[in-house]
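Bench notes, afternoon.
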Amino acid sequence: MQRLIYIALLNLISVSIYSQCFPERHSTNWFDAWISCEKKPNPNKSLPSSHWILYEFDALYKIHEFKIWNVNDPSHLDWGSAEVLIDYSEDSITWNSAGKFDLTKGPGKNDYEGMDWKAIGIPKAKYVLITSLKNFVGDCHGFAEIRFSAEKLKINTSTNNETLDENINFSVSPNPFTRIVLLDGNSNINGKYQITIYNMLGSVAYSEEYHIRNFSIVHKLDLGFLEKGAYMIEFQKNGVATRKKLIKL
């Protein structure tokens, strides 16, 4: 069944977003918006440093449409995004493009009801990345709010477990962790594997080789050097991988 996803607290950037006072209207307070005035490394490594915002859903969704309210503060209408690129991913590492979209400038009025719904063909996504390519004038980019019309896919999408290789299975404990992580599991195939830990921007935070013998995985990692946040740990062999979500406290 298709439903609306109201995006507010899923924002991974340090900007506050507040709810609307009316169902289809938006505040003219520019604090009620995502605003980026400094380019940062993009989670999609194929893109340069840019103005972007990343959303993480609770599961995989098929997304049909989206609706945006642009910056609506009368003093900062030029900061609104004029063109955005939307990418999507299942794991925040491999990205696919949903296309570029032109946006209209906010009117700066209290009865602003946002832009018309735009069709978007995203077949399966847990992460949606919006990169502002152009604004109207000035150094800052942003928009006030976004909604998606989507349906939740009936797939096992636990935030702590994303398995791509059926030949290997492992658990991570404790998770969340503060320093030491224990890996325990098994594999149908012995041999050399690559253990890689990615941050949520897709950058490699740690990597090592690990040899599976007797089809058993028993391994301890000291990850006290990692910064607090969310990571993805991956076992990979011959281009096939098994991944799990990892949280550092």
